[in-house]
Amino acid sequence: MTDNLSQLLSTPLQPLRPEWRIAEQATLLETARRLDAEGPDAYWAWAAEQQRWMQGWDSVRTGGFEDLRYFEGGRMNVADNCLDRWAEDPETSGRVAVVCEGEPGESRSATYAELADEVGRLAGALDSMGVRKGDVVAIYMPNAVEAFASVHACNRIGAIYTILFSGFGPDAVRSRLEASRAKVVIALDGSYRRGKLTPLLETLRAARTTVPTLERSIIVDRTGRGLPLEKDEISYAEALTLVPDGVPALPLEANDPAFLIFTSGTEAKPKGVVHSVAGFLIGTWANVRWQVAPQPDDVYWVAADVGWLTFPIQAIVGGLANGMTIVCFEGALDFPTNERFYEICERYGVTKVLGAPTLLRMLRKYGDPLAAAHPLPQLRLMTVQGEPLDGDTFAWATEHLGSGVPVVNAYGQTETGSTWVYPVAGVEALKPGSTGTAVPGHAYAILDDAGEPVPAGTKGNLVITAPFPTLARAVWDDPERYHKAYFSRFPGSYSTNDEAVEDHDGHLWVLGRADDVINVAAHRISTLEIEAIAISHPQVAEAAVVGVPDEVKGTVPVAFLTLLDGADPGEVRHQVSESVTSQLGGYARLSHVYLTAALPKTRTGKIMRRLLRDVVEHGEPRGDTSAMEDETGLTNVQAAVSSSRATDG
Question: How far apart are CA 521 and CA 240, in angstroms?
Answer without folding.
Answer: 63
